[in-house]
Amino acid sequence: MVDLGRRRVLFVAGEASGDLHGGFLVRELQRQVPGVEIAGVGGDQLRACGIDILADVRVLSAVGLVEIIGSLRRHHRVMELLKHQMDNHRPDVVVLVDYPGFNMFVAKEAKKRGIPVFFYIAPQVWAWGQGRAKKMERIIERLAVIFPFEEPIFNAHGRDFARYVGHPLVDELQVSCSREQTRLRHGLSLEQSLLVLMPGSRRAEVRMLLPAMLKAANQLKLDGWQVVLLKAPTIDRSYLEQANGGEALPVPLVDGDAHNLLHAADAGVIASGTATLEAALLGCPHVILYRFSWLTYLIARLVIGQRSMGLPNVILGKQLFPELVQRHVTADKIVRSLHSLERNRALFNQSVQELQATMGPPGASRRAADELVGLLK
């Protein structure tokens, strides 16, 4: 615990995973710096920390380079609000969590005003190229990275500003019940195979992925599987039904308890993102789905080529989890991919152990907070 007097922080988390990781970081910061004043963009996790929410994380929800264009007006309003906050309630530091497409613009505005920027969870420059690393070196005071190989990548351009802190999921993954207890709690059979669907935390990906997921679920139910749909906190039931053609969902909907359900599941079908890494670490084999506008997809392929995009595959350096992209996101291919995972369960179990070893030791949020407190002193 450090007595730094009155300190003010402007905090921006751009989506559900950033809100989750940001919540752990804020709680650790509040423990280390009692009385710190925090305001910014966040969701339920940051709101539960008692910070002043200036804009809800749902306002920034967008996926893909092209899809973001449709939300530019909302992003502009939030940016103006943040600039007003910097000018009229000058923070001692601006903290940005992930969401680089928007947060890099926030960082530039803070840099113009001479406000130091702390960036937590770096953009995936190993996928998108080194240009972003050079830009960050110029405008970010301190960067907390979550993979050990990221530190030398970001520090290779003249300034030692990146620090490896470990992955926050190591601390955040909390399984509180046995597989049997979880299934009984949700009215699920102990004997039937369980499939978990996670269509994402952003409307665009839900709209593009959910129909194929539900069609695959209907096929698997005929084969004796039981299926549940895990709802992200940023998505309402009504939108899920809208994405299903306005019809009632054909599978039970669960809000919350994600870690226990993934631990209790035999397989999953999951939108690309942090949830794929969570599922892997919890021992749930799964199929990773991507579907963007075609222009977004073509731009992405020009930048990263044919390499894997799923986080577990990127970290492991091998295609362990099937990735279905664009027109390949069909019910039949999802079902075939799940059967392939079943046949390779032993390889999956071995790879999970490799993945866990790569994620680093517990305490990422504490180490990130240590770096942040260093900027507040």
UniProtKB/TrEMBL annotation:
Record flagged with keyword Lipid metabolism: yes
A Gene Ontology molecular function term of the record: phospholipid binding
Name of the protein described by the UniProt record: Lipid-A-disaccharide synthase
Native source organism of the sequence: Cyanobium usitatum str. Tous
EC nos: 2.4.1.182
Protein purpose: Condensation of UDP-2,3-diacylglucosamine and 2,3-diacylglucosamine-1-phosphate to form lipid A disaccharide, a precursor of lipid A, a phosphorylated glycolipid that anchors the lipopolysaccharide to the outer membrane of the cell.
InterPro entries, sorted: Glyco_trans_19 (IPR003835)
Reactions listed under catalytic activity: a lipid X + a UDP-2-N,3-O-bis[(3R)-3-hydroxyacyl]-alpha-D-glucosamine = a lipid A disaccharide + UDP + H(+)
GO biological process, one term: lipid A biosynthetic process
Keywords: Glycosyltransferase, Lipid A biosynthesis, Lipid biosynthesis, Lipid metabolism, Transferase
